[in-house]
C-alpha cells in the first residue's frame, strides 16, 4: 500500500523503538475498537482471548502461518480511547516487546501512533519495521472497506529491512 517505509526512530520510555502513524477518517472510538476488539483485530492481524480486566490476554497472530503460538500481552496502561501500553512475551523466549498505541482525534480524523521497541538487538529493526508497515497498512485497508489480503508481505520484507536496520546503525 505505501511505497516507502513509514516508520521513524523514537525513544519511548527509554527504549529504542520504531514509531508509525496512520490517519483515519473516523472517530477515535471507532479506531480504538479497530485496534482493541478481538473480532476487529482478526480482520487485519490476530485475535486475543481471555479477560482484559485481569491485566493480560493471550494474543495469536493469524497471518504468519500455522506455526505461530499465542503470546502473552500484558496491559501496562489503558486509557480508552486514547492510550494503550502493552508488553508482549512469547513463550519460550526471553525477548519482551514494548508497544504503545496513542490515538488523537481532530475534526473527525483520528491519528494512530504505534510504537514498538526493538529490544536489545538493533538488528530486530529489520523485521519489526517492515512487519508493522505491513500490518498497519492491512489495518488501513480493513477500515476503509478493502480486503486486507490484497496487501502482500513480499512488498514489505525483505525490501524494506535495510531502511530500518540503517536507522539503528
UniProtKB/TrEMBL annotation:
A Pfam family the protein falls into: AHSA1
SUPFAM superfamilies: Bet v1-like
Annotated Activator of Hsp90 ATPase homologue 1/2-like C-terminal domain residues: 27-140
Protein family per UniProt: Belongs to the AHA1 family.
Name of the molecule in the record: SRPBCC family protein
Source species of the chain: Streptomyces arboris
Amino acid at each position: 500500500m505505501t511505497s516507502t517505509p513509514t516508520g521513524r526512530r523514537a525513544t519511548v520510555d527509554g527504549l529504542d523503538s520504531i514509531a508509525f502513524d496512520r490517519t483515519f477518517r473516523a472517530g477515535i472510538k471507532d479506531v480504538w475498537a479497530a485496534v482493541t476488539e478481538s473480532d476487529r483485530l482478526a480482520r487485519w492481524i490476530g485475535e486475543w482471548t481471555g479477560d482484559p480486566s485481569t491485566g493480560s490476554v493471550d494474543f495469536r497472530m493469524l497471518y504468519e502461518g500455522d506455526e505461530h503460538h499465542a503470546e502473552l500481552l500484558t496491559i501496562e496502561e489503558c486509557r480508552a480511547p486514547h492510550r494503550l501500553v502493552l508488553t508482549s512475551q512469547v513463550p519460550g523466549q526471553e525477548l519482551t516487546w514494548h508497544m504503545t498505541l496513542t490515538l488523537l482525534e481532530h475534526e473527525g480524523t483520528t491519528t494512530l501512533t504505534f510504537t514498538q521497541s526493538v529490544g536489545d538487538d538493533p538488528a530486530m529493526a529489520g523485521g519489526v519495521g517492515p512487519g508493522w508497515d505491513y500490518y498497519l497498512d492491512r489495518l488501513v485497508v480493513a477500515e476503509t472497506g478493502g480486503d486486507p489480503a490484497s496487501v502482500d508481505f513480499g512488498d514489505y520484507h525483505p525490501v524494506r529491512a535495510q531502511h530500518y536496520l540503517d536507522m539503528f546503525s
